[in-house]
Specification:
- The protein is 43% helix and 20% strand.
- Helix 1 crosses helix 7 and helix 5 crosses helix 6.
- The strands form 2 sheets. A 5-stranded parallel β-sheet has the order 2-5-1-6-7, with helices on one face.
- With 210 residues, the chain is of the alpha/beta class.
- The chain has one domain: P-loop containing nucleotide triphosphate hydrolases (Rossmann fold, 3-Layer(aba) Sandwich), CATH 3.40.50.
- It has 7 helices and 7 strands, in the order E-H-E-H-H-E-E-E-H-E-H-H-E-H.
Amino acid sequence: MLIIGIAGGTGSGKTTVVNKIINALPPGEVAVMPQDSYYKDSSHVPPEERQKINFDEPASIEWTLLEKHLKELKEGKTIEMPTYSYLTCTRQPETVTVQPRDVVIVEGILVLTDPAMRDMMDVKVFVDTDADDRLIRVIARDCVERGRTPMMVINRYQDVLKPMHQMYIEPSKRFADLIVPQGGNNIVAINLLTDYIESRLRHGQRAKSL
C-alpha cells in the first residue's frame, strides 16, 4: 500500500489534485481519507457557539482515530470512516465504508502538521496556491455549501484562516516531498506525481510475483 498525504491551504485546489490522480489511475486502486471527516464531534457545544470553533488548528482533528484507521487499512482491514457536517458542526451518525486499496490518499489542510501522520506517509505533497486565489475559492464554496455570507467568510478569513495558515499550514510545507504550485492547474506536477505512483505500484506488483 502506498500512502500519500496531500496538504495545502483552504481553497488551494487539493481536491482537484486528488481527483486528477484518481482519474489517471485504474478504477478501484485509490481510497481517499479526507481530514475533514475526522474533525472532533462538537454536538456537546451549544449551537450558537459552534460557529466559533477553530477548524484550522491541529487540535480540532481526532488524529488518534485517523491514525488508527490508516493502520487498519495497511493491515488489510476495512474501516468505517466518520462523516462530519459543516452546517451543524457535528459528527454524523452515518459512516463511509473504506476498503484497503493499493493507494490511500490522506487529504486536508493539516495532514503534514502531525509527526505521526507524516511518518506513515510514503509521499508528502503540498498544494501551493496564491492567497488571493484561495480566498476567492473559499468565498464561493462557503456561500454555496456552508450557508455563509461573503462578509462572514471574509471576516473568518482575517480572524482565523489567515493567521492559522501562517502558523500551521504554511510551515508544514517544508515537510513536503513535492510542492505543486498553482494547484490543480499544474498539469506537469500532477503528471509527475501520477507517473511516480504508477511506477511504485508496478514495482510492488513485480515484488509480489517474485
